[in-house]
Amino acid sequence: MFRRRLTNVVPAAVKFSHQHNKFFSVEAAQRVAPLTDGLVQSLQRIVGNNNVSQAMAVREQHGKDESYHVCAPPQVVAFAESVEQVSGVARLCNEHRVPLIPFGSGTGLEGGINAIKGGVCLDVMKMDKILAVHPEDFDCQVECGVTRKTLNNYLRDTGLWFPIDPGADASLCGMCSTSASGTNAVRYGTMRENVMNMEVVLADGRVIDTAGKDRRTRKTSAGYNLTNLFVGSEGTLGIITKATLRLHGIPESSVSAVCSFEDIQAAVDTTVQVLQCGIPMARIEFLDEVSIDACNKYSNMDMRVAPSLFLEFSGSPKSLDDNAEIVGEIVKMNGGSDFKWATDVDERNLLWKTRHDILYACMALRPGCKPYSTDVCVPISNLPKVVVESKKYIDEAGVIGPMVGHVGDGNFHVFFPVDQSNPDEIKTVHDVSVKMALLAQELDGTCTGEHGIGLGKRELLLKEFGETGIEVMQQLKQTMDPNGILNPGKVFF
Ligand SMILES: Cc1cc2c(cc1C)N(C[C@H](O)[C@H](O)[C@H](O)COP(=O)(O)OP(=O)(O)OC[C@H]1O[C@@H](n3cnc4c(N)ncnc43)[C@H](O)[C@@H]1O)c1[nH]c(=O)[nH]c(=O)c1N2
Ligand SMILES: CC(C)CC(=O)C(=O)O
Ligand SMILES: [Mn+2]
């Protein structure tokens, strides 16, 4: 049979292995078996001719996310329009032992969609229907391509919203697959707490509902928790085609504020004390002085350039006043000042848009660079130590590393703007990132609170779980995907 060779044109790139402390080229990992014309034709039969593309521009667009990980294009991109098509593509790839990579909105930060072993990228964004909203039960069901902003626009007149808010307008099933969260997690939890059920296509094309068909209960004791097995599985165990999500009532009133501190210790101590007092914060986000400076420039703001907290209170007007007063006292006790209140909706939206755009503000500090981001999360009482030590690591390494954090969850990020083509630079920031993660792990924390493992944190996962823990995960993977077709090379080596 005639075989067409689809070469993977991958820019010279490096992948760092700290186990062996050396660099090796991603290109080596990219030498993959060619796809047959027959397989491409079968794909066209399943999803339609117009939904299969081998154009280089389309492949490159699907071979990278928003991070510094170098583009690794799939050999072909297929666009699915129904669960039957997703199932057909999975069955085909499984029969032919071809890698299959689910693709949402491509906003991930750990190289989760990069096709490091070639294969078929399955873009599911055309499956974008909001299937049901049950306002009386506070839940809804969406197809995988619906984004969080589309859902919230749709819900606008219901008095309900879906609060999980990664800065990007990500697909809701991509968010399930990375266990995403954001600035509202301190009040509403992460994707884990807000997904009730999912329809998932398995590697061999079978379709399951993780909590049983049409189940949408607040609680369940029925069998194993398959829903939470798939949340955070990063496309390695199945393709999520629908999600049933919890909704929440829009609070009666909200007010936001910014306040600043002399040093980062004071800002983070304030956070810990506020939470320990049991104040039900709607949001509490930390930005260091480098981030504030970047925001001022990018978002045209005039905040004092100092370590700061962005706060939000919500609830009844009376509870807002009471809580804001207590927090004000704690801020003052820690030497904080310069409270700026945002009461009307436009002012509040501007403040949170500034926060959500921070990645782009920080990237503007070094135009042309890409973000390498850290994501450690620790028990709240250990947060001050990890933040302060991390700042020292950044300063010692002499790199640009703005810090921002969902500190109410014990989670924060450093964004390093890096030149993707400079291995020395990547190694320098990687070393800082590993030191931070090891410290967090030592202090009962995790290397990733919300971005996932992808390509970038596989060795840290081994550290976090130990060999037996990883072995159990690999046994699960082997059971569910015996031919290893689903997003190979992610989460584990
Ligand atoms: C500016 C900005 C700001 C933020 C963030 C990004 C950016 C660009 N993020 C990260 C990102 O938005 C988050 O990881 C999303 O969950 C990714 O969703 P996508 O749909 O883009 O998945 P994307 O397409 O990038 O895929 C990510 C992973 O999920 C898998 N996948 C995607 N769809 C799937 C499906 N239907 N079934 C199975 N697997 C699937 C992919 O294979 C891949 O492994 C983030 N995150 C966060 O948690 N908190 C934050 O604060 C932010 N902030
Ligand atoms: C670190 C990032 C790039 C995005 C993020 O998670 C955030 O802004 O909170
Ligand atoms: Mn974040």
TrEMBL record:
Its main location: mitochondrion. Residues 69-250 form the FAD-binding PCMH-type domain. Keywords: Acetylation, FAD, Flavoprotein, Mitochondrion, Oxidoreductase, Transit peptide. GO terms for biological process: lactate catabolic process. It is found in: Mitochondrion. Its EC number is 1.1.2.4. This is Probable D-lactate dehydrogenase, mitochondrial. The keyword Chloroplast does not apply. It catalyses: (R)-lactate + 2 Fe(III)-[cytochrome c] = 2 Fe(II)-[cytochrome c] + pyruvate + 2 H(+). InterPro entries: FAD-bd_oxidored_4_C (IPR004113), FAD-bd_PCMH (IPR016166), FAD-bd_PCMH-like_sf (IPR036318), FAD-bd_PCMH_sub2 (IPR016169), FAD-linked_Oxase-like_C (IPR016164), Oxid_FAD_bind_N (IPR006094), Vanillyl_alc_oxidase_C-sub2 (IPR016171). GO terms for molecular function: D-lactate dehydrogenase (cytochrome) activity; D-lactate dehydrogenase (NAD+) activity; FAD binding. Interacts with CSRP3. It holds the Pfam family FAD-oxidase_C. PROSITE patterns: FAD_PCMH. Involved in D-lactate, but not L-lactate catabolic process. GO terms for cellular component: mitochondrion. Belongs to the FAD-binding oxidoreductase/transferase type 4 family. Its cofactor is FAD.
